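ugh ok fine here u go
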Amino acid sequence: MRRRPIPQALHEVFGEQQSATEILVILLFALLGTACIYYQFQLLPYNLASWKLMVGLLIVADILAGFIANFSQGTNDYYAKRSSSRLVFIAIHLHLPLVAWPMGADLASAALIWAITIVSALIVNALHGSSFQLFTAAALMGAGLLVLMQLALPV
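structure:
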């Protein structure tokens, strides 16, 4: 795939170079995923102010875009060269508690999921260059999903 240069303001998201296909998939995943979550949310008996719903959905779109972007070659290469930037990137992500607040979700569960995510990211980051990094990442993601299923969360 042909890589295209990315404007410097977007390096933390897409890296210095990214393929058009990866950018398209990232954007589509964020938009379609947010639309699916919005649809599911409309089926629930919540009555949120429109500004809270919009703030929550914007954060959800950012989470989904970042999730997929982190698996792209451009983003991965960018942070592979900047280990301190990766740590800052991990540390500033308070998305889940931020999306839980306007959406009226359980803040304790959101904080627990956030903490597990941050600890897992730090462990995977510490294994950079190790042959166990990918396996550990998959195991931690699986463990996180199991914890998530045990929480009494609405859809």
